[in-house]
Specification:
Number of strands: 14
Strand content: 5-15%
Radius of gyration: 21 Å
CATH topology of the largest domain: Aspartate Aminotransferase, domain 2
Shape: globular
Bound molecules: pyridoxal-5'-phosphate
Order of helices and strands: HHHEHEHEHEHEEEEEHEEHEEHHEH
CATH superfamily of the largest domain: Type I PLP-dependent aspartate aminotransferase-like (Major domain)
Length: 376
């Protein structure tokens, strides 16, 4: 059996090596390293894929979130609502910009922002909501947009883990996640569903004015060369990454299908196991399984992970410490915030390997090892 890894970007690369190598060499030959034709082409291709008016490539997913927030023109102390149960980048950028993070509870099934708690925590100071489509499962964007519209709040989707997923509205219409809020942000970190060979990110929006502003912010606030109208930053996707992403974007649907097949195998294998709650698939979205995350019921998580480790099966906790428990936010005096579902989840979730290159022997081995431990 091939060694099991949480992600296997190397095997994935080897399958498209010829195309990728050629594209990279072409950029090298042209020396158009910054904002070259590959970057323009990628932005166009991603606009097409997502069916959105504007894609603004940038340096990484964290920058994407930061630039999106900067474009909203908020005042220090304005409140931004985010789930606490997410990767730190989502909440960190809020604090970095002197805004106030307000941590919202998550739904036990979807692991995404809880609509009732969201509504409860809206105040006149609430200026933005950042829902996170955690593990590849979309948040309930239809409900979020309804609340946001009612209260005049901007919505920035953190789509770093769900690129390619479809959101399905009540009337049956579908849109790609990341294109439903006012702004969508994503990351091309190598292990993401659409991963570069280094860092990368993108912002998308249908709003022409916001797009113009975000392009400017990502480029030192520059309106024309050496004329800087606003304080911005330097956040670029480099041409080599764009050339690679152009090729990988063509495979994104197949990559997501491969992840879904892995999840299906796991779900079938764990059927009827009371100690394991398998990931929920909400009726309002297709799940693209950036992670395959179980909730353990009455299982010693550390012992399970150690047991799996002995069997050559890596397993990870995403995320062991939620935002509201992080030292980073002590200054906001929100450490005491009561988020029982989030705390409950952080103590019980475990993620199994999932990627596009897994074979049946590996899956058999993983599921057999998990079942051995929980039924011993
Ligand atoms: C990966 C990730 C980010 C940040 O992306 P980087 O490209 O690493 O900066 C933000 N939010 C979520 C939910 C992520 O998973």
């Amino acid at each position: 059996m091939r060694p099991i890894q949480m992600v296997d970007t190397r095997s994935q690369y080897l399958k498209i090596k010829k195309e990728v190598d050629e594209a990279v060499l072409e950029v090298m030959g042209s020396s158009a390293f910054i904002n070259g034709p590959a970057v323009q082409a990628f932005a166009k291709n991603l606009e097409n894929y997502l069916q959105t008016r504007h894609v603004i490539p940038c340096a990484n997913g964290t920058d994407a979130l930061q630039i999106a927030l900067m474009a909203l023109g908020l005042q220090p102390g304005d409140e931004v609502m985010t789930p606490s149960f997410t990767f730190i980048a989502t909440t960190e950028v809020v604090a970095l910009l002197q805004l106030k993070p307000v941590f919202v509870e998550v739904d036990k099934q979807t692991f995404c922002i809880d609509i009732d708690d969201l509504e409860k925590k809206i105040t006149p100071q609430t200026k933005a909501i950042i829902p996170v489509h955690l593990y590849g499962q979309a948040a309930n964007m239809e409900a979020i947009m309804k609340l946001a519209d009612k209260h005049g709040i901007a919505v920035i989707e953190d789509n770093a883990q769900a690129i390619g997923a479809d959101f399905i509205f009540g009337d049956g219409t579908k849109r790609k996640t990341g294109t439903i809020g006012h702004i969508g942000c994503t990351s091309f970190y190598p292990s993401k569903n659409l991963g570069a060979f280094g860092d990368g990110g993108a912002i998308c929006t249908d709003d022409d004015a916001l797009a113009a502003k975000m392009r400017m912010i990502a480029n030192h606030g520059q309106s024309k060369r050496y004329y800087h109208d606003t304080v911005g930053c330097n956040s670029r996707l480099d041409s080599i990454q764009a050339a690679i992403l152009n090729i990988k974007l063509q495979h994104l649907d197949a990559y997501n299908q491969a992840r879904q097949a892995v999840a299906h195998f796991y779900n079938q294998s764990f059927l009827g196991q009371d100690k394991l709650t398998v990931p929920f698939t909400a009726p309002f979205a297709t799940h693209v399984y950036h992670q395959y995350t179980l909730i353990l019921n009455d299982v010693d998580r550390d012992a399970l992970i150690a047991y799996l480790g002995e069997k050559g099966v890596p397993a990870m906790i995403y995320y062991p410490v939620a935002g509201h428990q992080q030292k980073m936010f002590e200054q906001f005096k929100i450490g005491q915030q009561n988020l029982p579902v989030t705390d409950w989840l952080t103590s019980r979730v475990v993620s199994l390997p999932i990627h596009t290159e897994m074979d049946e022997a590996q899956l058999q081995w993983i599921t057999q090892s998990v079942l051995e431990f929980i039924n011993q």
